[in-house]
């Protein structure tokens, strides 16, 4: 799903420098992780609203139930598209991460500015064999987070980032 | 330090060094008598590197077995160590494992510090009780309440003082705190960025000082040691810096500001600029708060006249509210009084303050961004303000007075140009190439689109924004940590994008609403130039 709008100008919003950058997708299994996460939250909310509706019989609660359901479905579609839109690319000197559908974001983080790398995996992610790699710089605003990586790929990326970071390490 | 069982853990205690003669500290705990026999070896004054690893704990450090707590809270002191300076209970409960042999004893803060904290709380107490309470309970009760609360605060401060201690172990400064929730913070001195000696007004009157440590990555100023004697603070600062392997470039004690009207040490180095106090006053009168105050006064007086009631409480409340409004300009005047800027080798020395004098040293290679601000009312005079963002200093503190961010509280354009050229060599404030965004950005920023601008200079990235208060942010390429391109839904329709250049502190520079193709070029250029700038140093 690169550039879902055909009416895009020659340079697409998410794909700068198309000739030099090879984007890597993230694992589609992340869709299931995110959907399960959404489903649990949604289930709690819907059960609460459903019980309230059954007990009070108020029409407004029913409307709220429907709205929450619709929002949940819309969010599910958004998750599928967002996971497709997420990508990263390793260039010679920097890591590119792009994500976001409504607000599109592209981060360019030079390896030399890396302070440390986080590899994390929650229980749900572990069940699907996924991990998240996050690159931290001294700037709090930098967001270079790559979710949905296979553990092998995650550790490869981590090792590569660490090696490159040490290679080109510089302070602030 | 001593385990209560009195077993082998007594040994470290008796290995404690005698008080260092160069470190005369009457309120430090005296060493216990050597009741352990000849196990103790005389320790050098500074914890030797052999005694502790980089983390200060030898392998045999942790006490064997679970620590035997004493619920009664009566510390089983080592015989002979009793008395007013006996081992505080914090060490007994096993929270702080025994330090390595040769570690210096824990030092307490100055005995006067609880009094100072109590006096500080007096202000808070009075503010908290407020005028309406005074009117409700009468003066006598009010005073009684204030006294009781202030006494309570002082007692708490005494308790906390009693349980607070610090010492240097290996290459760490350890600070022990707390009675119920004990906390030991170990501050690795390698990560120390700066040590500041600060003297608030009360401390100036009592000859005390506060020591503030700035640590890389710390969310806030770590561990303010409040309060120490002035000499001790200077000596400890010196020692921390030498342990951190960063011997200060200037002579010892230069950062200590003597209180009172005595001769002050002039900021060393080549003086760059001194702000005239008259200008500072006028500049703070040209703020909205000061400008609108007469209107407020007229309004209140008119209301009183029409109501015909002049109760003491109403007047007092009005005055308090006005003081609150005026607080920021007044604080700025007090903080920036006698502002002096000097250049010393590769750092700037900033000295300012009327009640609380502070001297700050800002290494130029740690400057992340320079911000120029033109407040609306100052444009009459053609004045501007310069600020710095420095790496390593806390960003999360609400009280930003402790950050070395002042470069010029008020000044005219030539002064600003001169100082910017000093801080960022080769940058001309007036000659920055700022290009406006495309005209269609007016749909997003109808008013301020004319002000927006961004440009790539030879060595810096500069962006301008702000309709009323105009701001210019200058980021050297070498300080850019990451580059981001963000595009919102409306921007996508208009084929615009916003480019962020992130820096280690502060918001970095944000070029709003650039043409999409230009945004990509900007991002590519920023990345490439920051890479090149780092290569060349």
Write up this protein.
The complex is a heterodimer of chains A (172) and B (537). Chain A is α+β, with helices and mostly antiparallel strands. Chain A folds into two domains: 29-82; 87-167, Roll (PH-domain like). Chain A has four helices and seven strands; from the N terminus they run βααββββαββα. Chain A has helices at residues 29-56, 59-85, 123-127, 151-167; strands spanning 24-25, 87-90, 94-99, 104-110, 114-120, 131-137, 144-149. In chain A, strands 1-2-3-4 form a four-stranded antiparallel β-sheet. In chain A, helix 1 packs antiparallel against helix 2. Chain A is elongated, with a radius of gyration of 20 Å. Chain A starts with 23 loop residues before the first strand and ends in a 5-residue tail after the last helix. By secondary structure, chain B is of the alpha+beta class. Among the domains of chain B are: 1-103, no CATH class; 113-164 and 171-262, PH-domain like, CATH 2.30.29; 432-536, Roll (PH-domain like). Helix content of chain B is 31%, strand content 23%. Chain B is built from ten helices and 19 strands. In chain B, the strands form five sheets. A six-stranded antiparallel β-sheet of chain B has the order 13-12-11-16-15-14, sandwiched between helices. A four-stranded antiparallel β-sheet of chain B has the order 7-8-9-10, covered by helices on one side. In chain B, strands 1-2-3 form a three-stranded antiparallel β-sheet. In chain B, helix 5 crosses helix 7 (312-336) and helix 6 (288-307) packs antiparallel against helix 7 (312-336). The longest helix of chain B is centred in the N-terminal third of the chain and has 50 residues, at 113-162. Chain B starts with 9 loop residues before the first helix and ends with a helix. At the A-B interface, strand 4 of A face strand 17, strand 18 and helix 10 of B.
């Amino acid at each position: 799903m690169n550039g879902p709008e055909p009416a895009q100008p020659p340079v697409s919003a998410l794909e700068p420098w198309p000739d030099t950058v090879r984007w890597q997708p993230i694992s589609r299994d992340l869709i299931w992780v995110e959907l399960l996460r959404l489903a649990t939250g949604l289930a709690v909310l819907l059960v609460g609203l459903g019980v309230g509706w059954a007990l009070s019989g108020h029409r407004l609660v029913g409307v709220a139930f429907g709205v929450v359901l619709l929002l949940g479905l819309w969010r599910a579609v958004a998750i599928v598209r967002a996971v497709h839109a997420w990508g990263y690319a390793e260039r010679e000197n920097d890591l590119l991460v792009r994500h976001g559908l409504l607000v599109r974001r592209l981060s360019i983080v030079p390896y030399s500015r890396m302070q440390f790398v986080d590899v994390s995996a929650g229980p749900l992610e572990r069940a699907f064999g996924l991990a998240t790699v996050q690159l931290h710089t001294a700037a709090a605003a930098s967001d270079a987070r790559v979710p949905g990586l296979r553990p092998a790929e995650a550790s490869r990326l981590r090792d590569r980032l660490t090696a490159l970071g040490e290679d080109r390490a510089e302070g602030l | 330090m001593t385990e209560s069982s009195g077993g082998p853990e007594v040994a470290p205690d008796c290995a404690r060094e005698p008080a260092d003669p160069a470190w005369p500290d009457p309120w430090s705990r005296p060493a216990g008598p050597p009741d352990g026999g000849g196990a103790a070896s005389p320790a050098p004054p500074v914890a030797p590197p052999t005694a502790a690893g980089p983390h200060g704990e030898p392998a045999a450090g942790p006490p064997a077995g679970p620590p035997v707590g004493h619920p009664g809270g009566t510390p089983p002191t080592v015989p002979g160590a009793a008395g007013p300076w006996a081992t505080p209970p914090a060490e007994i409960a096993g929270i702080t494992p025994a330090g390595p042999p040769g570690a210096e004893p824990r030092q307490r803060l100055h005995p006067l510090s609880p009094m100072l904290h109590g006096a500080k709380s007096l202000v808070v107490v009075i503010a908290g009780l407020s005028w309406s309470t005074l009117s409700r309970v009468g003066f006598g009760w009010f005073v009684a309440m204030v006294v009781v609360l202030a006494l309570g605060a002082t007692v708490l401060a005494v308790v906390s003082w009693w349980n607070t201690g610090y010492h240097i172990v290996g290459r760490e400064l350890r600070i022990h705190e707390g009675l119920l929730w004990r906390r030991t913070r170990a501050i690795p001195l390698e990560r120390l960025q700066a040590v500041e000696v600060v003297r608030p007004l009360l401390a100036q009157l009592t000859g005390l000082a506060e020591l503030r440590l700035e640590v890389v990555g710390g969310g806030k100023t770590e561990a303010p040691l409040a309060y120490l004697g002035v000499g001790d603070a200077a000596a400890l600062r010196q020692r921390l810096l030498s342990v951190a392997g960063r011997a200060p470039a200037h002579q010892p004690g230069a950062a200590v500001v003597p209180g009172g009207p005595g001769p002050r040490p002039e900021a060393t180095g080549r003086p760059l600029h001194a702000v005239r106090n008259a200008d500072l006053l006028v500049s703070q009168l040209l703020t909205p708060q000061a400008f609108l105050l007469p209107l407020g006064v007229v309004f209140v007086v008119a209301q009183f006249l029409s109501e015909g009631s002049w109760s003491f409480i109403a007047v007092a409340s009005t005055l308090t509210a006005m003081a609150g409004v005026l607080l920021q300009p007044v604080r700025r005047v007090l903080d920036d009084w006698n502002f002096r800027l000097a250049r010393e080798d590769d750092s700037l020395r900033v000295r300012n303050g009327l009640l609380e004098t502070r001297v700050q040293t800002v290494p130029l290679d740690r400057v992340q961004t320079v911000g120029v601000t033109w407040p609306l009312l100052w444009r009459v005079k053609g004045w501007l303000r310069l600020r710095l963002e420095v790496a390593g200093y806390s960003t999360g503190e609400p009280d930003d007075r402790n950050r070395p961010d002042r470069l010029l509280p008020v000044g005219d354009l030539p002064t600003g140009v001169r100082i910017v050229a000093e801080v960022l060599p080769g940058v001309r404030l007036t000659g920055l190439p700022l290009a406006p965004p495309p005209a269609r950005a007016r749909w997003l920023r109808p008013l301020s689109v004319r002000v927006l601008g961004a440009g790539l200079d030879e060595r810096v990235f500069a962006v301008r924004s702000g309709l009323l208060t105009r701001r210019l942010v200058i980021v050297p390429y070498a300080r850019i940590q990451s580059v981001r391109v963000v595009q919102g839904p409306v921007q996508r329709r208009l084929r615009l994008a916003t480019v962020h250049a992130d820096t280690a502190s502060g918001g970095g520079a944000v070029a709003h609403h650039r043409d999409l193709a230009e945004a990509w070029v900007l991002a590519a250029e920023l990345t490439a130039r920051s890479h090149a700038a780092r290569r060349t140093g």
